[in-house]
Design goal:
α4 runs parallel beside α6. With 307 residues, the protein is α/β, with parallel strands linked by helices. The chain is built from 15 helices and nine strands. The protein folds into two domains: 166 residues, NAD(P)-binding Rossmann-like Domain (Rossmann fold, 3-Layer(aba) Sandwich), CATH 3.40.50; 131 residues, Orthogonal Bundle (N-(1-d-carboxylethyl)-l-norvaline Dehydrogenase, domain 2). The structure holds NADP nicotinamide-adenine-dinucleotide phosphate. NADP nicotinamide-adenine-dinucleotide phosphate binds next to α1, α4, β7 and α7.
Length: 307
């Protein structure tokens, strides 16, 4: 039986992932809170749902890619949510499987798994990494958490959006790994940001800075991302700062729950937090660079020439 797929949350990641699922030939029903975002994919052949409950009634596997833990719980258990729709569903196609691609806390993911179990449905967490580029190209890395049989059932859909696909362990384990990865990448990005600001202020030739640093122990995906943004001068939102901050806060909570001190993460959380309070939440995480450069260091491109 071919799965009929639902997709909820057509943001930066979700819209690209949903399109790849559609391109693989799955019949697709979508829903987005801001309805205009459904138009582009509807033109490609997706059906528009009226709300999450409506999507749950129409499909056999429903995917979500929303914001944080509260957003996921709202879509699942809120009014006109997935659980409401699942109750009204005809059961001839077996239990509804919910695959969540969002980054949330392990705790929230485990709670959603319990809610589905009580409702007779199935749940697989499947947080992703690879950014907007990976979502568009269908090359995401996926770290799932849940039961093996649900993972196997979801696999053809996971393969439509990702390349490296792992079942890490029970519910919560995929989310914990995702938060750890984001924490390491986010600390590295802040390090790159400080280092490159110092290089610019020091008047160093940036092409050689790039060549040397990317062939030294300073190299990282975060450094390369920031260098690429500096070069292009484009800081469009690929990974909004609000999500970067959300993930750091969730990681800190996991550190507390498990008794692991995370002092570097705590400090960097405060730095991203201050950028957020200065209004950068909807901007890309790397937009902190030009902001700090101009607002705090008050220097401009001409300054380099003057040195
Ligand atoms: P985004 O562009 O902000 O999109 C979020 C989507 O979720 C939007 O469609 C939004 O609807 C919807 N949404 C949020 N809260 C909702 C709620 N309470 N009820 C219904 N819909 C809600 O975010 P994104 O970058 O695509 O990220 C989505 C998830 O993937 C996040 O958990 C993020 O941490 C994770 N992630 C992102 C990246 C990345 O590089 N961007 C990489 C890996 C993982 P509206 O359109 O109405 O706002």
């Amino acid at each position: 039986m071919q799965e009929r797929v639902g997709f909820i949350g057509l943001g930066i990641m979700g819209r690209a992932m949903a399109l790849n699922i559609l391109k693989k030939g799955f019949p697709l029903t979508v829903w987005n809170r801001t309805p205009e975002k459904m138009e582009a994919i509807a033109r490609e052949g997706a059906e528009k749902g009226a709300n999450p409950a409506d999507v749950a009634r129409k499909v056999t596997v429903v995917c979500t890619c929303v914001g944080g833990p509260d957003d996921l719980l709202e879509v699942v258990a809120g009014p006109k949510g997935l659980l409401e729709g699942a109750q009204q569903r005809q059961g001839e196609h077996g239990p509804l499987l919910h695959v969540d691609f969002s980054t949330v806390s392990p705790e929230a993911s485990q709670k959603v798994a319990r809610l589905w179990e009580e409702a007779g449905g199935r749940f697989l967490e499947a947080p992703v990494t690879g950014g907007e580029k990976g979502a568009k190209e269908g090359t995401l890395t996926i770290m799932a958490g849940g039961h093996e049989e649900d993972f196997q059932r979801a696999l053809p859909i996971l393969e439509a959006v990702g390349e490296r696909i792992h079942l890490i362990g029970p519910h919560g384990s995929g989310q914990l790994l995702k938060l750890i990865g984001n924490m390491i990448g986010g600390i590295a990005l802040w390090g790159a940001l400080e280092g490159l600001l110092l290089a610019e202020r020091g008047g160093l030739p940036m092409d050689q800075v790039k060549e040397v640093l990317t062939h030294s122990s300073a190299d990282s995906a975060s450094l390369r991302l920031l260098l690429q943004r500096l070069e292009s001068g484009r800081y469009h939102p690929g990974f909004p700062l609000k999500h970067r901050l959300k993930d750091f806060r969730l990681a800190l909570r996991e550190g507390e729950r498990k008794g692991v001190p995370l002092p570097a993460a705590a400090l960097v959380t405060q730095m991203y937090g201050s950028a957020f309070s200065m209004g950068l939440g909807e901007d890309d995480q790397t937009a902190v660079y030009p902001f700090f450069k101009e607002r705090f260091l008050g220097f401009h491109p001409e300054e380099k020439k003057a040195r």
